[in-house]
Amino acid sequence: MSGPRVTHMTSGAYAPPAPARELTVPSTDDARLYVEVHGPQDAPAVVLSHGWTCSTAFWAAQIRELAGDHRVIVYDQRGHGRSPASPVCTTRALADDLEAVLAATLTDGEQALIAGHSMGGMTIMAAAERPRFRAHAAAVLLASTGSSRLVAEARVLPLREGPLRTRLSAGVLGSRAPLGPVTPLAKRILKYGTMGARSTPEMVEACARIVHGCPTGARHAWSQVLASLDLDHGVRRLDMPTAVLHGTADRLVPPVHAHALVAELPRCAGLTELPGAGHMTPVEEPERVTGRIRDLVSTYVTGAGEPAPQPIKEGA
């Protein structure tokens, strides 16, 4: 029986660095999660949660730049990367898994910056009321994510907003068809749907290898969860400093979601808009995303914790 496919770049900025430590963390419903820890054990902690169809490799650029002076914790969501598939795919399971990772990698009372991209951000919203999450989250970064109406707002199809676009988008995003090999055509389609026009061939290649490496069953199962997502209540429970980051050209989770988050967050620590970037912001704008993580760590994890003005809107 073959294990889950794991694909990623093997050289360059998007090749995943070797971890200092690897763990298998048990979670609910017999799920087992693959976890990596990078950097010095006594450094300030950053926990990174990836999105739908991705893996720990998605954070390669951030890990490479942060691990010199941060302890960077990354994990594969259940059914993704090296975490085996689970029959239970729910937002409750996402929250369970994040809490399991925090319990296994952080000491009692230790606080961290917890950042999530896309479904990783939704994981954080799902965990917003969990005691362990709240005990460990000094601050949060929500990147390229939303709390509800994902299919209705998606613009991956060039159609006017309405029931037809919603129905067709649901069919495309929830398809059971295998993605197949990474071909030039597949990369063009992926770039159009999920990345900005300025994305380099290396960026597109890195994302294509990761996304095409996601098992078809997991991709479909989690697409059904995202299609009916409603975590608006979780946003309102994120009462720790929470920053929002979004690409202005995101078709998959358009900027309307970022503005909705900013309006509902109790302690918004700023909105960073990345002009021309699509959905894959940690890959498309690695320096900006890494810089925002560093700023949040220095302010809320190792610094005085003074709240930033609400909201900060950053451009190019």
Walk me through this protein's architecture.
This protein has 13 helices and 9 strands. The chain is α/β, with parallel strands linked by helices and 316 residues long. The protein has a single domain (21-301), classed as Rossmann fold (3-Layer(aba) Sandwich). The chain has a 9-stranded mixed sheet, sandwiched between helices. Strand 7 (242-247), helix 11 (256-264) and strand 8 form a beta-alpha-beta unit. The relative contact order is 0.15.
Topology:
Elements: E1 21-26, E2 32-38, E3 45-49, H1 60-66, E4 71-75, H2 91-105, E5 112-117, H3 119-126, H4 131-136, E6 137-143, H5 150-153, H6 163-173, H7 184-194, H8 201-212, H9 216-227, H10 232-236, E7 242-247, H11 256-264, E8 268-274, H12 281-284, H13 286-301, E9 313-314
Parallel strand pairs: 3-4, 3-5, 5-6, 6-7, 7-8, 8-9
Antiparallel strand pairs: 1-2, 2-4
